[in-house]
Amino acid sequence: MATVNEFDAKAHAWDTPERIKRAATFAREISRAISLDPSWSVLELGAGTGLLSFNLVDRFAAVTMIDTSAGMVDVLRTKAAAGRIPHVRVELTDIESLAAAGEQFDFIYSAMVLHHIPDLATLFSAFASLLGPHGRIALIDLMREDGSFHGTASGSAVHHGFDPNTLAGTLSECGFAHMAWHVFYSITRLSLIHI
Q1: Burial code of 73-112, b = ≥16 C-beta within 10 A, e = fewer?
Q2: CA-wise closest residue to 50 among 83, 9, 94, 2
Q3: 188, HSE (Cβ side, Cα atoms, 13 Å)
Q4: pLDDT in tens, 7-27
Q5: Total Cβ atoms within 10 A of residue 63
Q6: Taking the CA of residue 181 as centre, how many other CA atoms within 13 Å lie in the half-sphere pointing to its CB?
């Protein structure tokens, strides 16, 4: 179950203009890449404060947002309650718990989460058990990089991005087919040196 993690303390200051803009871009790209169905029940893994899902919430019949950070979920619940969106469910939980409970979804998506998860094969197997026979996933994350994205404050980051072909291979081993990928967003990090 969820434990205290590095994101708890960051939650109340998470919604920066940069992250809000990036989430809107990610939502537009998901909408472009996948034919979204308004009857779908969907799941966002690592929803944080809901920036991505709140850009998509009107596109689906039911939206479940999960995160393992209690701080993020507290902010997310406050935002969901203020928006009075009846078809949104917010849970402080992990993907394995949802899979064990027999939950089912039509579509699962996440953004900037995979590089924090050590065992991707277990994650993708959980995705497979949570999806119906025609289920889809959309994963937005870092391309392979040298570790400078997180720098010395890497915290829970365990991967320095991904090679798409390697990631596709892991997905294929977990039962996924018909995969496609493309680069659509670039982030530049500036480092300041104090003398």
Answers
A1: bbbbbebbeeeebeebebbbbbbebbbeeebebbbbbbbb
A2: 83
A3: 1
A4: 888 888 889 999 999 999 999
A5: 26
A6: 16
Q: How far is CA 37 from the centre of its chain?
A: 19
Residue 26 C-alpha from the chain's centroid = 11
Furthest C-alpha separation in the chain: 58
User: For residue range 51-73, what is the model confidence (pLDDT) as tens digits?
Assistant: 999 999 999 999 999 999 999 99
Please choose, from the candidates 170, 176, 169, the residue with its C-alpha nearest in 3D space to the C-alpha of residue 131.
176
Note the pLDDT tens digit of each residue in 85-109.
889 999 999 999 999 999 999 999 9
Sequential DSSP letters for the chain = -----TTTTTGGG---HHHHHHHHHHHHHHHHHS---TT-EEEEET-TTSTTHHHHGGG-SEEEEEES-HHHHHHHHHHHHHHT-TTEEEEE--HHHHHHTT--EEEEEEES-GGG-S-HHHHHHHHHHHEEEEEEEEEE-PBS--STTTGGG-TT---S-B-HHHHHHHHHHTT--S-----------------
Distance of CA 175 to the CA centre of its chain: 20
CB neighbour class for 45 (10 Å; exposed up to 12, middle 13-18, buried from 19): buried
What is the total residue count of the chain?
195
For 162, phi and psi rounded to 5 degrees?
A: -140, 145
